[in-house]
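protien #1 (seq + structre)
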Amino acid sequence: MTAREDAATVRPLIGITGRRYRLDLLKGADERYGDRCIDSYVSDFAGRIAQAGGLPVHLSYDTDATDVCRWMSGVVITGGQDLHPACWGGDTSVVRDIDPRTDPMVHDVARDEYEIRLVRAALERGIPVLGVCRGLQVLNVALGGTLIAHLPPGSVSHLSTEAAPTDGTADHLVTFEKGSLAADLFGERAMTNSWHHQAIDRCGSGLVVTGCTSDGVIEAVELPGAPVLAVQWHPEWMKSADPALTWIVRAAAEQLAAHRAEHTHRSSR
């Protein structure tokens, strides 16, 4: 049985990152343990990954990145707050002195450090990586890239006022590079949703831009020779099915099947 054939029967573990904040942020939470923390994950990722044949696994900051990548067959770095500008040489004067456990939208150094370590560990082991919105920026920073701190107003609405789920608006049309993984998945162009005010400035080592909007904002990047894709929109909140989530499951299943086949071959010697 080939790796591709075996991939059809293997359900790979797909790690999904999230946030951490105090329980008293939840409406109706019991004040007796309001100062305790909860790890939070967008369930739309888990639902769509499960539908595509994967086994979603939520990863806490306490999960050692190197060790967990020995078990995962794919990793999704999800959206959320801005990365701390110290991670990429940005202006740190914008950072507010607020505990991220009391406000899930302020900078969270613990999350930044964990996701950067996770990206690097996954890349080292050749595990497929999907970056989503903030996750695209984490991937870029993990590879030494920089960010645009705030996109100026322009012809394309990047920080949408639309509620999720949505397929976006006609002005947010992403055009993909011919021959890229993104073009294979989405075609020549695709309309997508958008909820970001930062974007890639200088690409990290090895990353290639494979999708942009008409104003030049980078919307998709890849790492040639590696199973890595990152998009600036939210595939989990597209009203239509988004092939990015199907791709991560398929790529992870094929990687797992190849690993199992190699192990079987070695064992039979």
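ok now protien #2
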Amino acid sequence: MTITLTNESAVLVLPEDLIWSDELTWSAVAQKTERGIFGTLIIDAMARNGGRPITLQGDGDSAWIQLGTLRTLKAWSSVPGLRLTLGLRGEPFTVVFDHGDAEETKAMAMAAVIEYSDKENSDHYCSLVLRFLEASQTL
């Protein structure tokens, strides 16, 4: 099934073999527990509104993508808070790039299929990883 990323009227078609690696690990419930002064367990729970991680990644040598498309993705990821529409499995998700709070957590990762000194937009990269956060519909 086609995977797309849309920024207003610009649509990028992403590799179909990207895997949604954290699809079932996120919880829609936030919870915190603590003990009261008499030892009673106090549980605070609430529904989360947005923030679901969507990590799309290739498996080894899969998820080939052209450098020109990567350059567009990089430009989009450089805009703080840019909301995009991710079309995944026939369902639209409003997302922002997840830049994380650690240097090793990046919105994008990839590896060149063949390293060229003079890269062209048609050169391919693989093992693509894209990290998004699902954004709530309201600010």
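The chain has a mean pLDDT of 88.
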